[in-house]
Amino acid sequence: MFSPGPWSLPFVGDLLRIDPTKIHFQLAKFAEQYGDIFSIHLGRRIVVLNGLKRFKEAFIQHGENFVDRPSVPLFEDIFHNNGLVASNGYMWKQQRRFALMTLKNFGVGKKSLESSIQAESKWLSEALGNEQGQPFDPQFVINNAISNVICCLVFGDRFEYTDRQFQDLLRLINEAVYLEGSSWAQLYNAFPWIMRRIPGPHRKIFEHWDKVLSFVRLKIKEHKNDWNPSAPRDYIDCFLAEMEKWKDDADAGFNEENLSYCTLDLFVAGTETTSTTLNWGLLFMNKYPDVQEKVQAEIDHVIGQSRPPSMADRPNMPYTDAVIHEIQRMGNILPLNVFHMAVKDTKVGDYIIPKGTMVLATLMSVLFDESEWETPHTFNPGHFLDAEGNFRRRDAFMPFSAGKRACPGEQLARMELFLFFTSLLQRFTFSPPPGVEPTLEYRMGATHSPQPFKLCAVPR
Question: The pTM is what?
Answer without folding.
Answer: 0.95
